[in-house]
Structure formats: structure tokens, C-alpha cells
Design a protein that fits this description.
about 210 residues; 6 helices; mainly alpha; flat; about 65% helix
């Protein structure tokens, strides 16, 4: 049970909501920039150069905003990729901790055990908002810290009782990722029967017709 706080303490921060929001903002900025560019072209054709200039500047501003949002999107996407790696690296230990807690409560239902809690932050505080700002300004630092922790974990091995042999493998093997197939699958290739099967089927049909 003590493994759960240890395994969750080094989890990369969940930024799925921020990733979704920044993707939507990038899309809206791109559309606004396209609309402003179209308005600038239409004003230029009408000879309204003042409106054309202002719409052109507006389109450039939206384009710059779109690029900023895309940079943030790349940062958040990288953090979520690190979180996927953390999930695969710690899932077995976290599942064991939850199972052990459930078994302990089943065996001792009268004991007032404290709830099993994760060490991950559950709400966005002002401190976490500062972390997001730091994450955006220096994304490599957060990734480097996580990569070093993950590499240290993956390098741990189980020593063999016999000094003459090597280790017994990884101490914390990663959880295998689920390989789910798409719901819609292409049709299976038709398997044509062999000539012998076709001959046997023809003979059977002939015998059946002769018996009619």
C-alpha cells in the first residue's frame, strides 16, 4: 500500500484539460486569421485601403497568436506522452497497492484504516499554475527530470542469489501497452478451397443427384 504514494509522487502533471483548451484556442485563432485575411482581400478589391490594412494587421496578429498556441500545444502533448510512459512504468505496482489495500480491508473489516490516497495533485492551485508557466517557458527541464527518473527506475535489476550469474531481469518491468484493433476492420481475404476439396464437393453433389 505504501507503494501508491511513492509511485504517484513522480507522475508528470496531468495537463489533458490544458491540452484540449489550447488546441481549441489554436483552431479558433487560425479561423479568425483566415477570416481577417479574406476581409483584407475583399476590402482591397473595393479600394478600401484603410480597412484592408487594418484587416491585414489583424490577420497577422491572429497568425502570431496561433503560433503561440501551437507551441504550447506541443509542450502539453509532450507532457502527456511522458505521463503515458509513467503510467506504463508504474501500473503494475499501483494495481498491486490497490489490491493489497482491498484485501487488508476484507480481512480486517473492523480496523479504521485510512483511505488509500494518491500523491498526485487533485486540483489546480496557484502553485500549480506557476508550474504550468514554468513548464511552458522551459519544457526541456521538466522532461529531462522525468526522463532521468524513468531511466533510473528502468535500470534497476533483481540480483541473482548466485554471484556467478547475472541479474534476474528488471525490478520494475513496464506494463505492456494495450494493443486495441480498430472497431471497423477491413474484410478478411477470401480463402478459396483447394482443387481436391472442389472435386470432393462435385462428387458428393453428383452422388446426391443420382440418388434422387
Amino acid at each position: 500500500m505504501r507503494h501508491l504514494p511513492v509511485e504517484t509522487a513522480w507522475a508528470p502533471r496531468y495537463v489533458g484539460d490544458e491540452l484540449r483548451q489550447v488546441r481549441a484556442a489554436a483552431w479558433e485563432a487560425r479561423l479568425a486569421g483566415l477570416r481577417a485575411a479574406v476581409e483584407a482581400g475583399a476590402a482591397r478589391q473595393r479600394g478600401d485601403h484603410g480597412t484592408a490594412t487594418s484587416q491585414h494587421d489583424l490577420a497577422a496578429s491572429y497568425q502570431a497568436l496561433h503560433e503561440v498556441y501551437k507551441q504550447r500545444e506541443n509542450v502539453f502533448a509532450a507532457v502527456m506522452a511522458d505521463r503515458d510512459d509513467w503510467d506504463a512504468a508504474t501500473r503494475a505496482q499501483r494495481h498491486l497497492a490497490v489490491a493489497a489495500d482491498a484485501e487488508l480491508r476484507r480481512r480486517h473489516p473492523d480496523q479504521p484504516y485510512l483511505p488509500l490516497r494518491s500523491a498526485e495533485p487533485v486540483a489546480i492551485s496557484d502553485e500549480q499554475r506557476d508550474e504550468i508557466g514554468q513548464l511552458i517557458t522551459d519544457p526541456a527541464a521538466a522532461h529531462r527530470t522525468f526522463a532521468e527518473r524513468l531511466a533510473d527506475r528502468q535500470s534497476l535489476t533483481i540480483p541473482s542469489p548466485d554471484p556467478g550469474y547475472g541479474d534476474l531481469g528488471q525490478a520494475f518491468p513496464p506494463w505492456p501497452r494495450s494493443g486495441r484493433d480498430a472497431i471497423l476492420q477491413p474484410p478478411k481475404p477470401e480463402i478459396r478451397p483447394s482443387s481436391q476439396i472442389l472435386e470432393r464437393a462435385a462428387d458428393r453433389d453428383a452422388d446426391w443427384e443420382a440418388g434422387q
